[in-house]
Amino acid sequence: MKQSDGQYPMPPAWAATNIEEDDMSDKGPYKAYSGCALCYHSCGVEVTIEDGKAIKVEGQKGHPLNDGKLCPKGQAMIEHLYHPDRLKYPLKKVNGEFVRVSWDQALSEIAEKLDKLRNEYGPAALAFFCGSIGVENLEMISLTHRFKAAFGSPNFFSVESICYRMRIRARQITFGKYPVEEMDSKLYLLWGHNPAASDFPLSLAIEENLKKGSKVIVIDPRRIPIADRAEIYTPIRPGTDGALALAMINVIINEDLYDKKFVEEWTYGFDKLVPHVQKYTPEWAEKITGVKADVTRKIARMFATTRGASIFHGTCTQDQCANGSQNDRALAILQVLTGNINVPGGWVISPRLRLNDVSLPFPGKPLGAEEYPLFYELWGRTSPYAVMNMVPESVPSKIRAFMVAGGNPLVTMPDSNALREAFEKLDLVVVYEQFLTETAQYAHYVLPALNQLEFWGLAYNYNVCHCLPYLMLRPALLPPYYECRSIRDYYTDLANRLGFGDKFAWEKDEDVVRYELEPCALNFDALMARPEGAIYQEKDYTLRQGSFATPTGKIEIYSQAFADAGHDPLPTYLEPSKSPQGRRWAELGEKYPLVLATGVRDFYFNGAMLHNIKSLQTWSPYPKAELGPETAKKYNVANGDDVIVETDRGFVKMKASVDERVMEGVVLVPHGWPEEGNCNRLTDCNAREPIMGYPEWKGLLCSIRKA
Ligand code: SF4
């Protein structure tokens, strides 16, 4: 917007550093850097701003993740930002309809209800939820943790309660650290992972490295496009990956393919693993997985004999099934046996970013800490996440209110029907969001959220996601949209009304980021001078005493932590409860004879986000149930038919996509679609992985028929 003197404001001092002079003007338009927050990768973006509005978004040239490129979601950033349905004002539900209210009215009424709840039921009755974007926005999640602790509740649920955290936990238990796959690998073992749909930066890296001679192996119930260029491709029955992993360990040990020097020097428990895996032969696994025994041997040999090879497992494909924690441990052990730890192209322990913690210590244990202790505590270190599957059974006896920020749990969390019924029983639901999501529609109050281009944040997750010790600012490039407020501003105002405003003493959003960065050499001022971002510490591949912070100081193939919690200390296999070989087949198999896997990724959306963006809808207009031609024929379904996919928990309506690339006997459905396309109407909060309480999403039983 023009100033009173008729001039455009000067671009902020940090805005256009290192972007060509031609792009700059003190009267606008000007360019500024940010990290895209439309999914967890945080690709670098260059935003062109004119007259107080974003007018163009491009990939940031030279960014180590995306070097000038953007996926279609990132390209739609401005459409998302100025979408006509974006919330502008606080809303309150009155007689079933939302009416506009002031922030003052909304927050004073919410504070009054929270105060009453705290007095009547105790603070733990208030639960918090952040979705993926809530988690990827460091300030959103950490300020939510802070508010939760200041209020006095331990109950924080998030996408971490169902996704990725199990893998982090399993690697921490094995390595005492969290080693991460490097993007530049000699051999990509894509195990239930389709980067072309879910990991844009990784797919860019694979394309580049294939030209330089890298190889790919694909294990997936669907022959994903890159499988056509793979050295080996095998389909696998969803939910059975752990059996294949154990058989590969068997081959690598019995064919003497393991890295003896590495195993001897850096691991604990190999001697116990050798007899343990003898029964897990490739022939044993073939009966479970459908993977031919000779193919298992080929994969194991190629993987074990490549220096710089990495297993890339799908975000959740190995975790969200009955054998999840043991799968993660088995895959970690496979990586270890080949010596591909801290070698370029393998799994690497990259230097951790030491930030000031915005959250506060919380009182009590979160829901599920007793039932799933390894999810909560490891070697005295506790984690703040509660077990999402336990929400429906805990309302209203333990939980009576939810505050949701940056998430849509009624679509993205397990068993939507049960969760919706639970939400209907809550005394108070407050949702802080940019759009009136399905969860927001169940709220008593909806508070309009700022977009990532409107508040200060830190793009920090390059290391945990891609082994890149890189950091950049996400500055507030734009003024707030209508009455939208930052999460800091919202929590501060509410905290003041609840009597703990002293815990929210920051005056501005950027003060939070400044505080986070205080311990770092690359602190706030240093990053202001490097708005394009920078490496905060070089990687060091050398292993030394202390590299593995486990009780034995070694990589724990044998896990005493598992044994102490009552679980098998060496990886084992557990069949999904609802599967053709599972314990509930006799009860369910006749009515639901097909294997269902939910969560297929769609390149054009991120979970439940972005389904309202028209340009993306044209690419992906409806949810598809994918199945093979023989299965389709057997159930009288043709390509393009409207179909009902049903489980013992509910049904969805989708379009059939009949494709010979899909394993027969299997139905694959995407997640994140609204209403009748929501795959979590099919899932079951009681079908749980036994160690960490995760949902079994990759091996269920279903039927399919024409709608
Ligand atoms: S992959 Fe796409 S949506 Fe995700 S951060 Fe990159 S550009 Fe944004």
Summarize the structure.
The chain is an alpha/beta fold. It has 4 domains: 21-81, ADC-like domains (N-terminal domain of TfIIb), CATH 2.20.25.90; 91-164 and 357-455 and 479-521, Rossmann fold; 180-348 and 545-564, Dimethylsulfoxide Reductase, domain 2 (3-Layer(aba) Sandwich); 585-706, Barwin-like endoglucanases (Beta Barrel). The longest helix has 19 residues, at 103-121.
Would you write up a description of this structure?
The protein is of the alpha/beta class and 707 residues long. The chain has four domains: 61 residues, N-terminal domain of TfIIb (Single Sheet); 216 residues, Rossmann fold (3-Layer(aba) Sandwich); 189 residues, Dimethylsulfoxide Reductase, domain 2 (3-Layer(aba) Sandwich); 122 residues, Barwin-like endoglucanases (Beta Barrel), CATH 2.40.40. 30% of the residues lie in helices and 18% in strands. The strands form eight sheets. A seven-stranded mixed beta sheet has the order 5-4-19-18-17-6-7. A hairpin with an 8-residue loop joins β1 and β2. The longest helix has 19 residues. The radius of gyration is 25 Å and the shape is globular. It starts with 29 loop residues before the first strand and ends with a strand. The N terminus is likely disordered. Iron/sulfur cluster binds next to α1.
